[in-house]
Amino acid sequence: MLVLQGTVAAMRDGAPADVPGAVWIDDDGLIAAVTPLDAEPAGFAGAPRMAAGGGIYPGLIDLHNHLLYNTLPLWTEPARPTPWTSHAQWPRQAPSYQAKINDPAELLGKAAGRALLRYVETRAIIGGTTAIQGNPNGTPLPDGDLVRNIDSERLGTTQDFIRVRTLVANNPAQLQTYVTAVGQGRGFIYHLCEGSDPALLAEYTLVEGVGLVHRLLMAIHGTALQQAQLDALAGVGATLVWSPFSNLWLYGQTAAIGQAKASSLRLCLGSDWAPSGTTSVLWELKVADLWNHAQPQPVFTSQELCELVTANPGDALAQVWPHPVGRLVPGAAADLVVVANRNPDVYANLIRATERDIRLVVVGGAARYGTASLLRLAGAAHPTPIRVAGLARQIDYGDPSVTWPSITAALQAVRANPQAAADSVAATLAVWAGADLSLPNAPFILAPDMPSGDPAMATAAVTAVPPAVRIPPIQPLTPTRSWFDAVDANPFHQGLLSALRSYAP
């Protein structure tokens, strides 16, 4: 059992958001109750109470990412004078894409896949993320890791709740397995109409034609969608996942979010990936805040912005998951984050927070990251030191042999000798040729899920031997001055993203 006391931002209808309270977590990793400080639910007599030292929020949910690529720096095509207009352009037409994005990610994922995944999840959890979407191809990701991976999360069951397709379909036959899955109550996450070219609306027409404009659809990007499509998605209770940084970075514009909200379409945030996205959904929340204040009239209140990374994605997932997330309510999975109180408004406090303000992250009732004192009081099983934004923190990977230095050492070893890494992968793949990579003793291999010239490559990506390529420096966990400088250098966003510096401590 775990009892946290602080300012509770429950993200539930009718709940006050700025009064002291307590969150009571049971032995099953679920929230038993959320109460005032002077109340105690049955079954918790004598349970120790822990002062969180900040606001208690639902854990942040990143509903769109591509995990394999998140060690890489921001990317632009050199000398590209104008924004791209379609997701089909830059992976196939940009001369530098293969060498700077696909190949380094592939080598790291196949030569040090376990370390890569732990790096990515570390980067997420230090920003308060407790659930993230974006499985790479390859070996199935393990349950019970640092954060929930939405694509493969089982929540203690043997069920598969979500289907994901990264590559856009060209014909109805390619979507039939997803039509069947949605008919069986599975969620469907799908890239839709990413770019500014009106011709992209053909993607929507295809999805609509097979019956996938549905309440269980979580459509990613939707930057080319117009009012009619937004109204139709809202009408069936679908979800639109907004990645404003990536949209502005690549295309110079983002989705018609004001129209989408006016249509009552459920909206969520996703940080996309490191080459054209923010370091975590905590920073994507800041991009949404910048965009909001750049409008003639703000589209969102501060509470509504915070709901983009909590209640809204939680509601989308609650349609298929057995326990709610994204709200601090009885019966919900005990995924939460404690944020230092720097702002008297509980919602502005989350929007303005950086990694330095994240005091504790709990996933499924288990304390996984935070200050040493809070992890100790929360009973973390295997805390190990890590420095984040210059501060001493601790993290629990669930395995005492895993430390942050061991993770970075494995990644740096591939950087130091890419040829040896590629040769080792080739030998491993030769031994496992034709075998089932889901077997318990199989090597842990992560492979690209993005197109690289030919969409057919995605199918063969898992067993292809990676090239021995130069790997860029493994990026810091948090935004740095050089990252902000890189943001400034891209003209496509017309300066809007440069104001992210104002949130840095």
How would you describe this structure to a colleague?
This protein is 30% helix and 18% strand. With 505 residues, it is an alpha/beta fold. The chain has two domains: 2-58 and 323-396, Urease, subunit C, domain 1 (Roll), CATH 2.30.40.10; 61-95 and 126-321 and 480-503, Metal-dependent hydrolases (TIM Barrel). A nine-stranded mixed β-sheet has the order 3-2-1-4-14-15-16-18-17. Strands 9-10-11-12-13 form a five-stranded parallel β-sheet, with helices on both faces. Strand 15 (358-363) and strand 16 (366-370) form a beta hairpin. Helix 2 (97-111) packs across helix 3, helix 3 (113-125) crosses helix 14 (404-416) and helix 14 crosses helix 15. It starts with a strand and ends in a 16-residue tail after the last helix. The model is unreliable at 453-459 (pLDDT under 50).
CATH topology of the largest domain: TIM Barrel
Label the overall shape. globular
Largest sheet: 9 strands, mixed
Let me know the average pLDDT.
Answer: 94
CATH architecture of the largest domain: Alpha-Beta Barrel
- The count of helical stretches stands at 17
- N- to C-terminal distance: 35 Å
The rounded Rg comes to: 22 Å
Widest β-sheet, arrangement of strands = 3-2-1-4-14-15-16-18-17
Q: Which percent range fits the helix content?
A: 25-40%
Structural class: alpha/beta
Share of residues in strands: 15-25%
pLDDT < 50 runs, ≥5 residues: 453-459
CATH-assigned homologous superfamily of the largest domain: Metal-dependent hydrolases
- Any idea of the CATH class of the largest domain? Alpha Beta
> How many E-type strands?
19
For the record, the count of structural domains works out to 2
